[in-house]
Recover the amino acids of this structure.
């Protein structure tokens, strides 16, 4: 479904994307590659993970087409971490043109680490295959069940280029001796029965309805915010009005019982104030109420 080139011997089962990335960082660091290009803005948790493993993140800007690939060379990094299906936090989808450019960069000697974040949930756009299919020998593909089933189910996978299979397997072996077999067998049965596909078909319209409710409420209660990333995924990105401090907004919203994610902790260079709003686990009426409270919070700090 994702157009990934994956032979069984190239697939490693891991305890979520977090572990897959951590193991890969160990392998790259052992080869002397301690610099990794990342999308800017990106995930604060990912930046923390990189730094904890002694890897220096180098920011590459993101625009309306996704990662600005032509700026990769200037980063000096030999590897780049991307979320092309639905970038966090901006929600942008890496364009076909940029995917071609990224694959060409990889084939010229770079390594792409593709976190297939939110790929299963799209609403207003056609599906796009994974970047890995364009350069399978120069791409590490990471996926998990955290968004589709539950983050507490620590189960994911890494599809590896041939040269990384053995060192990655070695790192995995001595990290935990292997991911739990019972969870793997249960998920395999869910796949084989068609239950996983039925589950995805059932939740997509539910998440779309929640997305629609939140977008409509924000346009009513916070019309001055620019919404992005609405075509897919499980969160929205909202650029705040000029002059509004995002941390102050987050604190004012929390006092009203609404938790939002600020974007600044995921930036490596300055940018416009913005927040990310998750909607998957919240009922539609509660989302409408939250949007109204968020509008109050913004007006309070302006």
């Amino acid at each position: 479904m994702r157009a990934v080139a994956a032979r069984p011997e190239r697939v490693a089962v891991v305890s979520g994307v977090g572990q897959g990335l951590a193991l890969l960082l160990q392998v790259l660091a052992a080869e002397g590659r301690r610099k990794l290009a990342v999308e800017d803005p990106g995930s604060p948790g990912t930046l923390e993970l990189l730094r904890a493993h002694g890897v220096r993140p180098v920011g590459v800007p993101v625009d309306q087409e996704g990662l600005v690939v032509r700026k990769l060379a200037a980063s000096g990094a030999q590897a780049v971490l991307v979320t092309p299906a639905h970038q966090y936090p901006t929600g942008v989808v890496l364009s076909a043109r940029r995917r071609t450019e990224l694959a060409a960069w990889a084939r010229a000697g770079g390594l792409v680490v593709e976190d297939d974040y939110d790929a299963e949930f799209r609403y207003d756009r056609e599906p796009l295959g994974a970047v890995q299919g364009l350069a399978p020998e120069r791409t590490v593909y990471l996926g998990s069940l955290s968004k589709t089933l539950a983050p507490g189910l620590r189960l994911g996978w890494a599809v590896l280029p041939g040269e990384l299979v053995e060192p990655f397997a070695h790192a995995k072996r001595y990290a935990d001796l292997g991911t739990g077999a019972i969870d793997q067998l249960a998920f395999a049965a869910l796949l084989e029965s068609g239950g996983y596909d039925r589950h995805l078909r059932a939740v997509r319209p539910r998440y779309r309805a929640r997305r629609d409710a939140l977008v409509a409420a924000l346009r009513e209660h916070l019309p001055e915010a620019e919404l992005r990333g609405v075509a897919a995924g499980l969160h929205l990105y909202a650029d705040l009005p000029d002059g509004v401090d995002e941390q102050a907004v987050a604190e004012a919203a929390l006092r009203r019982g609404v938790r939002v994610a600020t974007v600044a902790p995921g930036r490596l260079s300055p940018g416009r104030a913005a927040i990310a709003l998750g909607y998957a686990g919240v009922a539609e009426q509660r989302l409408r109420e939250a949007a109204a409270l968020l509008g109050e919070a913004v007006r309070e700090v302006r």
